[in-house]
Amino acid sequence: MGFPDRIERTVEIARPPADVWAALTTADGLAAWFGETVTIDLRPGGAAEMSWSSGDVARMRVERVEEPSVFAFTWHINGLPEDDPRRTYVEFTLEELTLEEAGPGTRLTVVESGFGQLPDDAHAKAFGGNTEGWASELGELVAHLDAA
């Protein structure tokens, strides 16, 4: 029996794709809902980094940039040693829609994959933590965009 390899979440946001794209792909946008301090070189192969006052740091490598519909990066797997080369792949897909009550909107899907490469103990920590993390972070993204 295998482990789940991917986390997938979809939210509908009452903002046009351009607004959601900016929140996902700019330092200011990411700092408003995800990290506290953010740098990003928005091109395939570019580096991105998010840090928090807790001392935690997430280093990413930008993998795909197809404005305004696909943004993807790879990042370190929580719970593994810093020098471990394994990464998960995170892809955001934006789809324009018309929300009956709100007008222009975006269906945002995030898929994080690569957890199947982990042994039992590491899988439980990384997959469980990121499953909870995406639910929380996407809620913060929606709240940020709703307030903007």
Automatic annotation (TrEMBL):
<dbReference type="InterPro" id="IPR013538">
    <property type="entry name" value="ASHA1/2-like_C"/>
</dbReference>
<dbReference type="Pfam" id="PF08327">
    <property type="entry name" value="AHSA1"/>
</dbReference>
<protein>
    <submittedName>
        <fullName>SRPBCC domain-containing protein</fullName>
    </submittedName>
</protein>
<feature type="domain" description="Activator of Hsp90 ATPase homologue 1/2-like C-terminal">
    <location>
        <begin position="16"/>
        <end position="145"/>
    </location>
</feature>
